[in-house]
Amino acid sequence: MPPEDETPSAGWPPPADRRSPDETGTGAVDPWARTAPDLLPLDDEDPTPAAVIAAAHSAAPPDDEQPTAPLAGYAPSPVEPQTAPLARSAGSPAEPPTLPHAGYARQAAADATFVPPPAPMPPTAYPAPAAQAPTPVPGYPASAAPGGYPASAVPAAYPASAMPAGYPASGVPGGHPAGWPPPRPRRRWGRVLAFVVVVLVVVCLVGGGLAVLAFPWLKDRFSGPEPTGAPSPGPNAPFAARQAWIKDRIGTALTEQHRALLAGDEAAYLSVVDPAAPQVLDGMRTQFRSLRAMRVAGWTDEPSNPTPVPADGGEQWSTELRGTPCFVTPTCAKAGAKAQTRWRIRDGRAWLFEWQPVATQPSPHPWQVAELVADAGERTVVATTPDFAGKLPELLAEAEKAAKVADRFARAGATPSRYVVYYAGPQEWRRWFTWNPGDTVSGVALRVSVERWELMLYDDNITPEVLGGVLRHELTHAASLAGPFKDSDTMWWLHEGLAEYALMDGARVRDYLRMPAIRQFVADGWNGDIEFRDPPKGTKGWIVSARYGVSALAVRHMADRFGEARVVEFFHRVVHDGVTVPVAARETLGVEWAALERACAAFVRDSAR
């Protein structure tokens, strides 16, 4: 749930049909916080957690729209990440459009009215010179060309062999008069010589072609390496052409980084950084080492269109990158880790001159800003700072057990490739993901993209007794909420009910830690309504705890009656397909919702006795 403190966290703009936390009054409430004044008394032996598990849908869904066209020179990884979202059902909201960069919008408007100067006319006394082949930039791999440029730096008319097109078949020049000198019928050495030359040329061409086919390295030996990279259109070229070339140059640099990251080559990864930017070197080095510690196995960058930046000492261009690391497996859902970058173009190459992670929820990601140590299992990756490295074995063991529970609640075909769990100290808790949910929360699940959720646990409020429950709750959010959905406010009871049901993991109802709050809630005159919305801000902690508990017991009753698999199907029909609760109950459970809600309420009252 959103933070309990009064300071709202910066977040993504919510969809048009979703109310903001300010409008709903939702606040993070901790029914078991040490400092909250409205709590039930607790026994010293009560293993109740020090902080409530935060609701996952508190983070506003991020704008996950693809940025403008990716850089032409950027080569994707051999296996593309599985980033395609689930099919959006009828009535699901469209993703919010991405607002263009203000500077780029102004430039685009200028381009629309820009009239290029006329090309200079050649002197009338001489023919126009032939077009010269562009000069390649040595030492860089060829990349896909931006719009308006040939696919490679090789001119389109470049001949297939070293023999220029149109060269005479023999070495005998023509142009002499037909009758002079007089023919010598008995000595036809000229014709014999011509025939021999023709035969030799044919043999050389055929043999040379076969040799190149059999030994491709011979081509470079005799003709030099293939020209690489798109040629620069020049500083006075139209903006669109210049921008396309800049995209290609930045793309080539990102490709070098991508390959170096996956190969574990730190020196090559840092080689794209401008030597005059030591602070960027430090940041890139931290990012590289943290990603490697987390066993990065796939990486993509999605850059926005570069925009020019006035600067001394050369041409500079700014672009925003959205990075996605895949841990352990080469494919995963998008992560949307944002960073603002500035590149200096020098000698046909892009040099990274400025790099700064964006501090807007859900960025920065921990691996962007912190040195991390990590471990990985079959289903999870856990990471923290070196101060808490000793906690990794226990954290990984509990995360692996919780992941097996959470997997049961994912939609078919949408199970996360790996669950990512970060363990934060006080400083990291306030900085990572620009979240800062307050000091009374144990853990949160954050929506870093439409298809991907990641966890953050707070060291101050995590004990061995509650670690497993917190992980089961939050990982179930990460599994069950992956994909587009709407009406998260009205579906609060179902989101939290399923996560709390997973937290219970088949334990006896009478041992459920929220039972004291449920009993008081029922005794105070609860009307039997199951479909709770997000609790308003300022709601007493024990009431929020009771609402969590009532929702959990409602889902528990449905699972006991119809089986867990049918309840999971009911959940996804309502949350992801946008089917109303009554229709989903009728279609998946075979009952009328009004009657089922009365049965759930009776189960809650019986359990509270």
TrEMBL record:
* Organism lineage string: Bacteria, Bacillati, Actinomycetota, Actinomycetes, Micromonosporales
- Region feature (Disordered): 1-101, 113-134
Task: Please note every region of biased composition (Low complexity).
Answer: 48-61
Q: Which residues cross the membrane?
A: 192-218
Q: Which domain of life is it from?
A: Bacteria
The name this protein goes by in its record: Peptidase MA superfamily protein
> Which keywords are on file for this protein?
Membrane, Transmembrane, Transmembrane helix
According to the UniProt entry, which residue ranges have a biased composition of type Pro residues? 115-126
Q: Does the keyword Membrane apply?
A: yes
